[in-house]
Amino acid sequence: MRIALLLQYDGTGYHGWQIQLEQVTVQGVLEKALKQMYGCHVGLMGSGRTDSGVHALGQVAHYDVDQSDVPPEKIWMALNRMLPKDIRIVASAEVNTDFHSRFSARERSYQYRINTRQNVLDRNMRWYIRYPVDMSRLETTATHIMGRHDFSSFCYAGTETTNMICNVMEASWFKNRDGELMFQVKADRFLHHMVRMLVGCMVEVGRGKWQMDEFQRLLLNPDRKAHVITAPAKGLALMQVAYPPELQPDWTQAERAMGKA
Amino acid sequence: MRIALLLQYDGTGYHGWQIQLEQVTVQGVLEKALKQMYGCHVGLMGSGRTDSGVHALGQVAHYDVDQSDVPPEKIWMALNRMLPKDIRIVASAEVNTDFHSRFSARERSYQYRINTRQNVLDRNMRWYIRYPVDMSRLETTATHIMGRHDFSSFCYAGTETTNMICNVMEASWFKNRDGELMFQVKADRFLHHMVRMLVGCMVEVGRGKWQMDEFQRLLLNPDRKAHVITAPAKGLALMQVAYPPELQPDWTQAERAMGKA
Which residues of chain A have a CB within 8 Å of the CB of B57? Predict the structure, then answer.
């Protein structure tokens, strides 16, 4: 049987999602908990990797087991008891074996948060910038990202990917109370460091250091060696992974198991 | 000379503000940094104590030294280098010896934050409640708190204070995006556990467990043995301490010292 998990983590204390030798990673900690629960190694597949220090509020992962003594809709509760407080499973569900957390995903959403006022409580979750940023310049820059583009200029040079085309369905800036700026972006796929590089460069435009056309040129002339600014990992969070309706895991059973619905 | 500090802290890792034997406290860590800077013990006086796990974004404290090699408006930078990342000095200024961080204070403002959706990133800064709360009932309850009252019913039983009268100038609930509820309150003074008890009881009304008049009765019949609910410490933050204009420390020099203004 195949089990899908909906999970959140505070990436501050982890060397990213992906399991690594001699590093504490989210996948590593989760596989340890699964081993404790099932008594044998269980490989976990995430919808995508997140970098060191990047957070997730809507990561999806799946694994296969022969059988589960714990009912699928209650696995999340059992796992949470074995996990540190900075990783929380929100829901669990049995899914069809056609479902694959990574390959079935159709859309991914990220949020990037910036604080323009110092706040010690947000120090691991926001990029704190001390200079003023023009909201309307940020908004205009974001409109250029919308649609299908070759994002080579906004990709980590050491990546293994060759397909650089992403289709961006949403790219918007919001201003919250307390001087917080939030960038929300949704696409079919993202390249390595793409959101952080987009945010880093948009902020250069927003603060007036770059002209708008310098940003546009990076999109029009895809160049993996382009000079770009990468915003810090800590401001980024994976918010949602969307699947086709026929494959979408049913998280509501897990909510009901808690007595919520 | 007397130096005033404007400071922030994440209270998660501390046994409150007040120095204690064999416990890590904010005051204790700050006095250690001051000793390192001045080479002798320097006693620090805060505007008020905060409980274990309570945060501050606008705490004020002062200390006296014979002389300071570091210019007053740059002390905050020097101290930050000796402090852990969860305590940040935002500004420092020389003040008149008439100024006293606690006794000169005229108003104090607190915020209490509640999340109605689980969010691992806010786990140490919000009270997470799983039941629905009626915003208009919260708002109505808050109006009853306004003005001068005997808050005996909302005071920790073990307190040493005898004056139970507080004058509340602001008491308002806000609903932010993402299902966050925020209570903002300002008064001339607060009793021990007062904000947490007010919030705990207002939420009982908001969720429909208490009638409005049960809350009102606690205000009309001051009783230090009243049955009240205390909201968790982690949702609370001291936001601002206000002083009379003639005593108000001038934090702008510190901002200028950073090249901001």
Answer: 119-121
CA distance B71 to B78: 10
ipTM: 0.89
**pTM given for the model:** 0.91
Q: Return the pLDDT at A5.
A: 98
pLDDT, one tens digit per residue, over B32-70 is 999 999 999 999 999 999 999 999 999 999 999 998 889
**Residues of B with catalytic function:** 51
Q: How would you write chain A as a 3-class SS string?
A: CEEEEEEEECHHHCCCCCCCCCCCCHHHHHHHHHHHHHCCCCCCEECCCCCCCCEEEEEEEEEECCCCCCCHHHHHHHHHCCCCCCEEEEEEEEECCCCCCCCCCCEEEEEEEEECCCCHHHCCCCEECCCCCCHHHHHHHHHHHCEEEECHHHCCCCCCCCCCEEEEEEEEEEECHHHEEEEEEEECCCCCCHHHHHHHHHHHHHCCCCCHHHHHHHHHCCCCCCCCCCCCHHHEEEEEEECCCCCCCCCHHHHHHCCCC
Nearest residue in chain A measured CA to CA from B121? A10
Give the pLDDT score at B35: 96
A57·B120 Cβ contact <8 A: yes
User: Tens of pLDDT along B107-161?
Assistant: 999 999 999 998 999 999 999 999 999 999 999 999 999 999 999 999 988 878 8
**CB-closest option in A55, A120, A130 to B121:** A55
Q: Which domains does chain B have, with CATH numbers?
A: 2-103+245-257 (3.30.70.580), 107-239 (3.30.70.660)
The most confident of A149-158, B115-124, B233-242, by mean pLDDT? B233-242
Closest CB to B118 among A90, A121, A237? A90
